[in-house]
Amino acid sequence: MLYDPTSLWARCLHSIQQKIQPQSFQTWFGPTNSLELCPEKAVIEVPTSFFADWLEEHYSWLIRATVEEETSWKPELEFVVQKEADGPSEFTQTVEPSPPPMLVTPTVTNISSTPSSSLVFPLNPKYRFEQFVVGDSNEFSFTAAKAVADSPGETAFNPLVIYGGVGLGKTHLLQAIGDRCFRNGSGKSIVYVTAEKFFSDYLQAIQKQDTAEYIKIYRNADLLLIDDIQFYVKTEGCQRELIHTFNTLYQNQKQIVLSSDRPPSTLKGFEDRLISRFQWGLVTDIEAPNLETRIAILNCKAEEKGIGLPPEVSRFLAEQVVSNVRELEGVLIRLLTMKSHLSMEINIDLARRALAGIGRLSNNRLPVNIETVQKATSDFFNIPIPLLTGSTRKQDITSARHVCMYLCKSIIGAPLKAIGCEFGNRDHTTVIHACKTVEKKLSVDPAFGTLVTELENKIQSSVPS
Ligand code: ADP
Ligand code: MG
After folding, report:
1. Which of 120, 274, 291, 327 has CB 3.0 to 4.6 Å from 270, enough for a Cys bridge?
2. Separation of CA 274 and ligand 1 centre (Å)
């Protein structure tokens, strides 16, 4: 039987359009076609391999579900890149020396109606200076962030780089700077963006062969906040673009703030001239909070939710969850949920149950990043890291490598490109393949599942050796 892929795909697109934001639909599904759509196979044509990667990572579940809804088929999904598509070219435009006044509010997300603010991520209203608990571990970063927020572009802290482990408040501080400037009216154009988004907007601009809007947003920013710079994709073109943006803003005395999971000097894959730019201003770190600060944070978060914690309970929780504020918050939410579901008093017993439920009764945990996952996997399988990340195709090593990539994705949520980079500069498709292989094996091999869970638990509760 012959199926017409075009009309079937049009039906699927219509359905997908109802399920996601118009902006996302237009961006990611607008340029797709189906070359083949039958019970065995769905071949979707996309403009570039970046689209293939993005759709695979973010929307494959939605495409599968929609195709099944529309046709009752469960075909294998495959993305192919359009033949005539050109690879990314470089920016050639120069930037106006004096940018026109523009207000990019942090809440605008609609791409079609307000092009000048379309690329901006919204700010989270919870992330304000007033809600940030200051302690020894973060005081310097907090003070520097406030100084910058009060006089963007006018202090010596340009750029300001805040680095530290996962869940220690980097995003909170970056957004607090944006929020303060926005409320003070001290920056006309405030742009908060993750490095991943900054990069994908760049590729999209190139794809559309229209970089004017991208340049208008990013190079005209009065305050540019780039979160998680370690996840910026480090191809030559992307790095050059970042340098251009950086130079333009710096020369115009516009404020740049970056966050990173490690000191700039140890960031991998960036050109030296970028690393040196990252260090022109102030580099400051956030450490894991000490016990007193953790208690204060817990009390503050509980208060925000209108609950008072008995002092012995906040102390007990703060003693157990030591390295990550996000996790501390997670335990508190679990405690409050259990309280209302079980109609119990908040006491040490309930706190213990809240902690036990998420397997967090250990101390001194290390921050989890790609390196720590690699180290734990290397120890677990007794395979040296160079072999694990190298090109050896021996079966046991390949299998451990796949598990390691899979855990980098599932535990840290690192972008595929970032994972590929840390495994000998492999392509993101290799990482996709690794994750799929592991997922497939997990679904059929319980012993393998036990092994992976054991390693995962080790990583989640790793203690410094
Ligand atoms: P990071 O970006 O460093 O991974 P986040 O900024 O996302 O971490 O912080 C994780 C959570 O912990 C957020 O909800 C944030 O509000 C909270 N948090 C972190 N540090 C503090 C602090 N010092 N005071 C209050 N909340 C904090
Ligand atoms: Mg963050």
Report:
1. 274
2. 27
Whether the predicted model's global pTM rises above the 0.70 cut: no
List pLDDT tens digits, range 81-118. Answer: 887 644 433 333 333 222 222 323 333 333 333 323 22
Q: Check: CB of residue 51 under 8 Å from CB of residue 18.
A: no
Nearest CA to ligand 1 atom 13: 326
CA 167 to ligand 2 centroid distance, Å: 7
Sign of CA dihedral 164, 166, 172, 175: positive
Residue with the nearest Cα to atom 20 of ligand 1?
169
Taking only the tens of pLDDT, the chain with its 465 residues reads: 567 888 889 989 988 887 776 767 887 888 899 999 988 899 999 988 778 887 887 788 789 888 888 888 889 999 998 876 444 333 333 332 222 223 233 333 333 333 232 225 578 888 999 999 999 999 999 999 999 999 999 999 999 999 999 899 999 999 999 999 988 888 788 999 989 888 888 888 888 888 888 898 899 999 999 999 998 877 888 899 999 999 999 999 999 999 999 999 999 889 999 999 999 999 999 999 999 999 999 999 999 888 899 999 999 999 888 878 988 998 898 898 888 887 888 999 889 888 876 655 544 445 678 888 999 999 999 999 999 999 989 999 999 999 999 998 877 777 888 899 899 999 989 999 999 999 888 888 888 988 988 898 888 766 443
Torsion of CA 282, 287, 292, 296, to 10 degrees: 70
Atom of ligand 1 nearest to the CA of 289: 23
Q: Nearest-5° angle of CA 186, CA 189, CA 194?
A: 115
Cα(167) to ligand 1 centroid in Å equals: 5
Residues with CB under 5 A from ligand 2 (ion): 170-171
Nearest residue (by CA) to ligand 1, atom 21, is: 169
> For ligand 1, which residues put their CB under 6 angstroms from it?
127, 131-133, 138, 164, 166-172, 297, 300, 325-326, 329
DSSP letter string, 415-462: -HHHHHHHTTS--HHHHHHHHHHHHHHHHH-HHHHHHHHHHHHHHHT-
Distance 297 CA to ligand 1 centre (A): 9
d(CA 320, CA 52): 42
| Residue closest by Cα to atom 6 of ligand 1 | 169
Q: How far is the CA of 111 from the centre of ligand 2 (A)?
A: 24
Minimum-distance ligand 1 atom for the alpha carbon of 174:
6
Q: Which atom of ligand 1 lies closest to the CA of 127?
A: 16
